[in-house]
Specification:
heterodimer, A: alpha/beta, Rossmann fold, 2 domains, nine-stranded mixed β-sheet, two-stranded antiparallel ribbon, B: Rossmann fold, five-stranded parallel β-sheet
Chain lengths: 392, 360
């Protein structure tokens, strides 16, 4: 199974975010991996243990910044991500969620094509050259590039019955080999995209569903999605998935035919994968990890540049907003207030009052305040008055 | 297609045969925007057998309710809802379309916005209508100004100048529902929907009990922040003590004053995953942008610095009390009743003043 994990680099300290006209300048900041994305990696780990396959990271932004962030995700021998792809291009800078989702959807499509094409190449070699060494050479080359699952071709000594091996040994006919390869391509087409529920910088939660819509548009078929997924399971054939999520006062189970997209809730806890499927897992898996990051530009993606970056973003971030005037404040223990209702009085020829209990002394001459204080009419705002005002 | 897009649409959710509180707030938000624009408010209601709810929507501010009635829309299923709503948008072209910033609203709005295509500003806490001037794009009259927290440090204005509808999700708790007006008149228009075959289906729906704690429905919320981890002298303290003080205050407010009180927490405290508070305070207690938005009669912030992220989740509370050791804490600048001091001393004093047993 091809599992695409969407990852984002977010500012390490949101209070020190560097923005240019409302757009984050990610090149000028320390970035960390979006914390919510950790759950997406856990979900990808589970799918690899359950079904086998490959988890590829897909992210967008300055590759010089993003590649080091993803390095720790490669470290685990078995789990974590196996390959990483960074969509990096000036043309994508300043993208809002719509433009981002379009670019990411193109990336997903390209990843699917990238994993289907090698199987087709093997099929082509079989069709054109038959039982020949060039079939083995082609398969070996693609296998070492991490582009063929063990079921198609492998150099693992434990697996002796890959499609290419059986074909070259004369155990299966050309027709059978081609049919099995077609089934293998079908398997790649049942990919899963996983993402965090949202990012800590934009906090929109929109990119997941919008990528699902974007992939639907690009592939010409509806890609279902489920957000806030707390639990999920795939069927043994890895062709459908049941996800469970909370929406409002409801808990809903959604059965989706693959391909599909999930955003993974912070409540998600991976299941334990059944041991019985280990042969399947191995057959579906690829050679291993590729530590070299792949960088794709807008041209690599075949993107319509009118749909990228600032040009392709319908929303514009404008000036900040005054978050509101401070209210009239009464600080416990320090703000001077009238401790009791006070009749109007004259001070230095001016009339003041009347005042109610709790009124501030703002605007009163200092001399008047100190007179009132010594007379016991004014004093510091205290807990008793606070209690009264809170209960009023 | 020559006519200009017009109308303020709001997406109405329902549960247990009632419109949700979020939906009533959205109708109020829609009315406020529509009146500035001189346009009508249209409620968009999807489901099966919902005529009564359509009427409720009219009494709470809708001029027109588009009632998409189809068995295929029960229970909630995102792909069908997206198609039904996108069909209406394409055909009738509203000027503004508002959704609640909750799981369902976001689910639908994101995909619909991509299909249109148009922008989507999420989690707005204010909406306004203003003219907008952009040197590169030109002048725009009567644009919806969408105000949302931006990168955790400020509120930003978001504009969608060139695309219609201008789509936004609105944070629950940001607007107050209009009182029911039984004299209000409005139209209800039934619309059919024929779903295509989908590669997904809902296999099970379970109704969950109302959230515990019910922060949004409380009269008083007492929220704890990272400040509970140390006292005035800077010494580490067992945060269970602060929690105990908060519970005592809650007890007094509920028993003596009949005020429904809940315990909240800041994101910082939740994310710190304080061992001592395990099982006592969790994500369901979180107040703020990522948690629940509250607007109780009284909000008591204990050891919370008041980053914007927290502020947008509680700033509409009628009275805000804040206890903080740091005189520079942002929350002390906007609380109605700032208290600079050690929460381990001040909180019991407040409880005592409210009629508590006097633990201090």
């Amino acid at each position: 199974m091809l599992v695409v994990v969407l990852l984002k680099g977010v500012p390490a300290r949101t209070t020190q975010a560097v923005t240019v006209g409302g757009v984050l300048n990610r090149e000028a900041m320390d970035l960390v991996l979006n914390p919510h994305d950790a759950k997406a990696v856990e979900a990808a780990d589970y799918l690899k243990r359950r079904v086998g396959g490959k988890a590829v990271a897909l992210s967008m932004g300055p590759d010089m910044k993003l590649v080091p962030l993803m390095k720790p995700l490669f470290d685990a021998e078995v789990l974590g991500i196996d390959e990483e792809y960074v969509l990096s291009d000036r043309k994508m800078a300043g993208s809002d969620t719509l433009a981002t989702s379009y670019a990411v959807a193109l990336g997903v499509k390209k990843l699917v094509e990238r994993h289907m094409a090698p199987i087709e190449e093997v099929a082509k070699a079989i069709r054109t050259t038959g039982y020949s060494d060039s079939v083995r050479a082609k398969a070996a080359e693609l296998y070492s590039a991490n582009l063929l699952p063990n079921r198609v071709y492998t150099e693992l000594p434990s697996i002796r019955d890959s499609i290419v091996h059986r074909f070259l040994d004369g155990r299966i006919t050309t027709e059978t080999a081609l049919a099995e390869l077609a089934a293998e391509k079908e398997r790649v087409s049942k990919f899963v995209v996983v993402a965090g529920i949202k990012t800590t910088d934009g906090e929109t939660g929109s990119v997941g569903p919008q990528v699902a819509e974007g992939v639907s548009e690009l592939l010409g078929r509806v890609l279902p999605h489920a957000t806030y997924v707390e639990d999920f399971e795939v069927d043994p054939e890895a062709s459908t998935m049941v996800s469970e999520r909370k929406i409002g006062y409801l808990s809903q189970k959604l059965e989706m035919q693959l391909p599909a997209l999930l955003t993974i809730s912070t409540e998600y806890r991976p299941r334990s994968a059944p041991a019985a499927t280990q042969d399947q897992v191995r057959a579906n898996s690829y050679r291993g990890k590729v530590f070299q990051a792949f960088k794709w530009t807008a041209d690599d993606l075949g993107a319509d540049s009118k749909r990228l970056g600032l040009v392709g973003s319908p929303t514009i971030v404008g000036a900040g907003v005054d978050v509101g005037k401070p209210p009239v404040q009464k600080a416990v223990g320090s703000t001077l207030v009238f401790l009791k209702a006070t009749d109007p009085f004259d001070f230095e020829g001016k009339k003041f009052g009347p005042f109610a209990q709790g009124d501030l002394t703002t605007g009163l001459p200092e001399g008047a305040v100190s007179t009132l204080k010594s007379g016991g009419a004014v004093g510091a705002f205290g807990y008793e008055m606070l209690a009264e005002e809170l209960l009023a | 297609m020559s006519e200009e897009p017009t109308g303020v649409w709001v997406y109405l959710q329902h549960t247990r045969s009632k419109l949700t509180g979020d939906s009533l707030e959205l109708l109020a938000a829609g009315r406020a925007v529509a009146e500035k624009l001189g346009q009508e408010v249209t409620g968009v209601l999807l489901g099966s057998g919902l005529s009564d709810l359509a009427n409720t929507a009219v009494l709470h501010g809708a001029d027109l309710v588009l009632l998409v009635d189809s068995p295929a829309l029960e229970p909630y299923f995102n792909l069908a809802y997206v198609d039904a709503i996108y069909g209406l948008v394409r055909e009738r072209r509203p000027y503004v379309f508002l959704f609640a910033a909750n799981e369902v609203g976001k689910d639908i709005a994101a995909r619909v916005a991509f299909k249109v295509p148009t922008g989507l500003a999420t989690d707005n806490v204010q909406l306004a209508v203003e003219d907008y001037n952009n040197p590169a794009l030109g002048q725009f009259k009567n644009l919806l100004i969408q105000v949302r927290p931006d990168f955790g440090t400020r509120l930003a204005r978001i504009y969608t100048p060139r695309h219609r509808p201008q789509m936004a999700t609105v944070r629950p708790g940001s607007f107050s529902p209009l009182p029911e007006d039984t004299t209000r008149m409005g139209k209800i228009e039934k619309v059919g929907f024929q779903p295509p075959a989908y590669p997904a289906r809902v296999t099970e729906v379970v109704e969950l009990p109302p959230p515990v704690p019910d922060l949004a429905g409380a009269d008083v919320v007492i929220s704890l922040g990272l400040g509970v981890l140390k006292d005035g002298s800077g010494k580490p303290r067992d945060p269970r003590e602060a929690y105990q003080y908060a519970m005592e205050l809650k007890g007094v407010l509920e028993q003596k004053h009949k005020l429904k009180t809940e315990i909240g927490a800041s994101r910082a405290l939740i994310y710190a995953e304080v061992k001592a508070l395990e099982g006592v305070i969790g994500r369901s207690n979180q107040v703020g942008q990522t948690g629940t938005t509250v607007k109780p009669k009284v909000y008591i912030a204990v050891g919370i610095s008041g980053a914007l992220q927290h502020r947008v989740g509680m700033q509409n509370s009628s009275k805000i009390v804040a206890i903080n050791l740091d005189p520079e804490a942002p929350i002390l600048k906007f609380a109605h009743y700032p208290i600079v001091g050690d929460l381990y001393e001040e909180l019991p004093k407040l409880t005592k003043a409210l009629g508590g047993g006097g633990v201090a």
